[in-house]
Amino acid sequence: MIHQASRALFGQRARRRWLHLIVGGALFMPFWMVGSVAMGPLLDEGGLFVGGIGAQFGAYAVGLPLVAVAALFPLARPMSVAAARALCGVPADRFADSPARGWEARARTAGWFSLHLGAGALVSGATLALPPFAVSVMALPFSSALRASELGRFWGLDRPWWDWAALPAGFLMLLALAAVAAATGALLARQAPRLLGPGPSERLAAAERRAAEAESRNRLARELHDSVGHALSAVTLQAGAARRVLDGGAGADLEFVKEALTAIEETTRRTVGELDGVLGLLRRGEEAAEGVGPGLDALEALVRGAGPQVALTVAGDLAAVPEALSREAYRIVQEGLTNAARHAGGEPVTVRLDARTEELEITMENPLPARPPVARPGGGRGLIGVAERARLFGGTAQAGPAAGAWRLAVRVPR
Length: 414
Known about the structure:
By secondary structure, the chain is α+β, with helices and mostly antiparallel strands. The protein contains 13 helices and five strands. The chain has a five-stranded mixed β-sheet with strand order 1-2-3-5-4.
């Protein structure tokens, strides 16, 4: 218990908070001097440092409103937060780092600045004045000069036995100073998050930023999933087909093997380029997010790399599709082909795009395999990503068995 009490009064956190109060007292000095100049003529006392106790507290009372006015400037909050974060022992994420915007945030900052500098001035004054006085009191039993001084007469010269009570009295004075500093520092630490933390509008803005960052991460995850996942599925399919043809022996269709190897080469080259684009986006940051990925102009190469069992039909002018929608439509087709390569068992796949109306329609179908595919542990996120891409433009996506086939249908407004 004694250890806990000593730690609360003299531990590292208590010392830092005490230093924080002394910094507040130092910052209060210019305001106190202005108050002294204002109070001097009123109380008919000269000089900044020779006035009585009434003049000192009068200057203090004049300086506090000036502190509140100075704290209305936006940059007062970042400076206060920097000091409080370093010295108050409050978790850093509970502060608002931006300058105070709006009267509500400025009023809270003014309250904090007034509390910090006002309390700091009192604790700093006590820190400067009380220790020398307490040490002098504790020295009374050992110094005849001190006992003959004004301090000795105040303490009680006519009672010599009482001089020895000065030892514990001086010690208690120092202990009381430490207790007051620790309690005041704890008070400021409790009030710091409320007065220097984000307000409702700032918390809303922070939530919106987090949502935007999460959406950016999700978009990058979709890009990587669709690009790399499709490439691996297509390469696996083409390599498996080439191997089966070569297993046929001397009568193997070498032209088919050549086409499969060419498709593997094109797919991997295209995917490496897409991967470089996504990784470049991660390095550059969010400013390049809107321009990543191929569009529908690369659709034929995508279908060609998926193999001869994929048939593409296009109605309308795909070049008229907006660029952002074109990129998302490409990824939707890519994910559909990836799913077909994984689950269709080599069945033919038809891909139809219709851009003749105000909506872009994407339809992909393949016969249901005779044997249901083995589900991957944890499932996949391909169809979820397709639905997210469609909703991004206000569209819809439906996937499931239909008339003996697996059908993916996406409709997106242009």
